[in-house]
Amino acid sequence: MNVAGLRFACQAGCTRCCDAEGFVYLTEADLGRAAAFLGLTSEEFTARHVVRTRHRIRLRKPRGKQCSFLEAGGCAIHPAKPTQCRLFPFWPELVEKRRNWENTAKWCPGIHQGPLIQIGRALETADEMRKAYPYLYPEG
């Protein structure tokens, strides 16, 4: 990892981040944007696509897939994709730990590609992730 910054550029046709093991968490704003994009009310979108737990909102995982919106051509809701998806790979756990960044580079072909992103900008983006999902990044 370059001390001055990180290199990342999405690669055409790649959807590996969308197929990685895990959950896609949502903010209330994400939920509203996705619902509007699909022409649904927030309630309809929630009933069809969302799991709510005590402090978290996430997309339902269909059997055999990580995301119901991942299609052969990419994300079916790309213009309204969740914050978590939009910010990848500039998540705190990746930006702040070289080993995690390098491990992600093993399966993400966009890491180490493209223009240099200044480390300050990468950290600002990681902070946006912390603010969007405080339950994933408790302080202390």
Main β sheet profile: 2 strands, antiparallel
Helix percent reads: 25-40%
- Which radius of gyration do the C-alpha atoms yield? 16 Å
**What's the order of the H and E elements?**
EHHEEEEHHHEH
Distance between the termini: 26 Å
Task: Show the helix and strand layout.
Layout: E1 5-8, H1 28-38, H2 42-49, E2 50-52, E3 57-59, E4 70-71, E5 74-75, H3 83-87, H4 92-95, H5 98-105, E6 111-118, H6 119-132
Antiparallel strand pairs: 1-6, 2-3, 4-5
Helix pairs in contact: 1-2
Describe this structure in words.
- With 140 residues, the protein is α+β, with helices and mostly antiparallel strands.
- It has one domain.
- The chain contains 6 helices and 6 strands, in the order E-H-H-E-E-E-E-H-H-H-E-H.
- A hairpin with a 2-residue loop joins strand 4 and strand 5.
- Helix 1 crosses helix 2.
Feature tags:
140 residues, alpha+beta, two-stranded antiparallel sheet
Condensed summary:
By secondary structure, this protein is α+β, with helices and mostly antiparallel strands. Helices cover 36% and strands 16% of the residues.
